[in-house]
Amino acid sequence: MLYAEPETTRFLAAVQRLKLQQRRKERLTRQAKQRVRMAQRKTREC
């Protein structure tokens, strides 16, 4: 049983941190893709 263990709060905190890191990484990836698209548009316009 996981929830009876004293380390449960630490485990949940670790999970929360992982989720946060994942969201941050996804956001950065999305921003990078947007920058690439913008750069491609600019080169096509010239």
Task: Describe this structure as you would to a colleague.
By secondary structure, this protein is an all-alpha fold. It is 83% helix and 0% strand. It has one helix at residues 8-45. The protein starts with 7 loop residues before the first helix and ends with a helix.
What's the topology here?
Layout: H1 8-45
In short:
With 46 residues, the chain is an all-alpha fold.
Distance between the termini: 63 Å
- Strand runs, count: 0
* Biggest beta sheet attributes: none
Net shape = rod-shaped
Low-confidence stretches: none
Oligomer: single chain
Q: Give the strand content.
A: under 5%
Helix content range: over 70%
H/E series: H
Give the count of helical stretches: 1
Rg over alpha carbons: 20 Å
Briefly note the structural class of the backbone. mainly alpha
Mean pLDDT: 88
Key phrases:
46 residues; mainly alpha; 0% strand
